Amino acid sequence: MSTLSDREISPAILESCRSGERDAFRALYDCYKDRVYAITLYFFHGDHAIAADVTQEVFLKLMTNIVQFRGNSEFSTWLYRLVVNCCMDTARRRRPAAAVPDMAVLAAEAPSQEEEYARAQTGASVREAVSALPPKFRIAVLLRYFEGLSYDQMARALHCSMGTVASRLSRGHKMLGERLKDLVGPKG
Amino acid sequence: MFTRHVSRRLAPYIDGELDAAGRRGVEDHLAACATCRLAYGQVRIGIESLDRLPAVAAPETIWVALEAALAEQRPYPARTSGWRWAFAAAAVVVMIAAAWWIADLDAGKWIVTDAATRARVAVGSIGYVDVEPNTRIRLLKDRPEEHRFQLAHGTIHATITAPPRLFFVNTASAVAVDLGCEYTLSTDDNGSGLLRVTRGWVAFEWKGLESLVPAGAMCHTRPSTGPGIPYFEDAPESLQQAVDGGPDGLNAILEASRIRDTLTLWHLLQRVDPADRGRVYDRIAALTPVPAGVSRDRALALDPETLKLWKDELAWTW
Fold first, then answer.
1. ipTM greater than cut 0.85
2. Whole-angstrom Cα distance, residue A38 to residue A100?
3. Is A94 on the interface with B (CB under 8 A)?
4. What is the pLDDT of residues B38-75, one digit of tens each?
5. CATH architecture of A8-180
């Protein structure tokens, strides 16, 4: 897992974004797009269409309102709040149809080599296990894994205490571990 | 001596988020507790399993759509075409000839719409307020840390994208505090009003009372009592009527409530007569498991930490 500090956008680019420079927006988008997309994709059970919509919504809000932000820390907090709010709001709107893992994605992505196929199957099992987590655990696990947020940053993004973050991550990871114990052994 | 189980501190322990004392506490407990050792192994597997998730890349079509959407938003916002932008009471109203939004509404100025007009007001750079017909509203403060309006009467629709507690709307009996959201707020001159939230959350506050209203829910406010009990728009009709003051209120609410209506019950717990709190608690507990850390005694005593912890758990069903 790479951490956020490896890949944060520079203050200069943020400043250019505030001035409305298109190239700076593109640089900012390129910096975060894959992580935001991955979170939304795994949050919405591998549904690429929803993930694309939610990712677009996050960046549209970000770009429309970026002028108000000063300093990297505030910007980051805001970005993660946007991701959380957009995911949760969309999940609420889609509640009745939400929870079916998209196995077609796996089939389309399955490689021909046996070893790679096995790896893809393992990935799909992990993805299904993540999909089965309750939304509050799922978003916490995904934020931690893809963004490498500290517990303090997660607490601000999730509107809860650090204790609640710790509890959700512990319970979420335990659920994953219980489900995947035959598939994924501890390293080392 | 045997200490409390540490299952909820295992992730921060593995992630290195505990201080030295916290780490020692977990390690001492793990040495003595087979249950938590088992849980520790499961959490480790859970964390490490995420490395098996396939990497994904955002498709380029998102950027294309983004550029198109941004282009549509200039001038801001495109979907307002067709509205009539006109304002009565010229002495107190900002008029912009041929404009379709008000860029710099000065604090203190009123906007008054008649039966045939609407207006759109930019809220700094964090969103906008649509002012519906027959509405009177003014800007009280317009600072980066506080955008505050006063709604005297009528209806507004607010669309805000910002960190919480930057945007406020005062009415005669409640203050709507934006927590990152979109909502419609109506009120009359006496302060009777209705808040309907369509995205995110709004806190409806007045003199120490607070009603938290999530997307899909609504909440009345009245001059004598302030913000009422929120309920979901899809809640059973009998529940809605009971919350709005129908006969046999508490019994009807308890009987009709679904899991999602713990929104209503959680607020009700804090507003009913102390003698009735136990019935509300029991109904919530019957609908959804009470989380660790919430005890009946502390909940009935309205302990703030307990209520918050419980709300945080219940909110995932709201």
1. no
2. 17
3. no
4. 999 999 999 998 888 878 888 877 887 787 777 665 43
5. Orthogonal Bundle (1.10)
